[in-house]
Design goal:
This protein is an alpha/beta fold. Helix content is about 35%, strand content about 30%.
Amino acid sequence: MIRTEDLTRRYNGTLALDRLTMEVREGELLALLGPNGAGKTTTLRLLLGLISPTSGRIWIAGEPMTPARHDLRRRIGYLPETPGFWERLSALQNLEIYARLYGVPDPRRRAMALLETFGLAERAREAVATFSKGMRQRLALARALLPHPPILLLDEPTAGLDPEAAREVRELLQRLKGEGRTILLCTHDLEEAERLGDRVAILRTRLLALDTPARLRARWSGAAVAIEVADDPTRYLPVVRDQPGVQAVGLRGAQIEVRVTDPQAVTPHLVRRLVEAGAPILRVTPVEASLEEIYLRIVRGEPELPDTP
């Protein structure tokens, strides 16, 4: 549904985006992660045709996107990081104006339907100036959906929201994803990215990684187990290191954390050897790296794990 090839953008000689080649599949939610200044917002503006690339190409639904393709832009709903409204106008009036700009038939009916969908119908005739930030985000999502777009580009939709409002917005995104829309979500919230995203892209001017969270873990973290013992765990480190299938060993409190090639094959043998060595084992649990840990490893330039036979 969205595809880029060697997409590059410079601002006055400064490289903002470096040869981005990426695809967002139809019906997929792709979470785009990266530090501030990584090129995420620039990517969204390029996809919308608001700015032209320095080089590279963009396709929306199989057709090339350029700033002149207003017809393609109508197929995209956009939520900017700081959505603006006419504060003195009501929510209904704001949506009606945008509906007319989009050429939506029966603007008032469409606006009211969306206000109902987003739980804002009772406040439809109140000035937007009286709305909380969470209500404004819901209104901004309603505005993005006015022309029935199959594609949504969302820039930090839950930034600055309290936990309850953020949950409401995430639930709305789950609903939109369930409707089969193609969604590109820019976020700094890694838990949100993992919860909502089918895949995760990590950007730092250039694309560093693009895959499912599970595959990213396998490539940058691998399988691991934590073995908790009742006495000094350092006594048993030599035993652990000598076992076949052990890739790396570390300590976290009373736990020995062991990265292994195959947990099902290696763990029973490892536990047996520790028991033979006199280790008072309290528990053995699988360890899964958080997406935050994986993200930091990738952004810091740590290498992928080597393939193991």
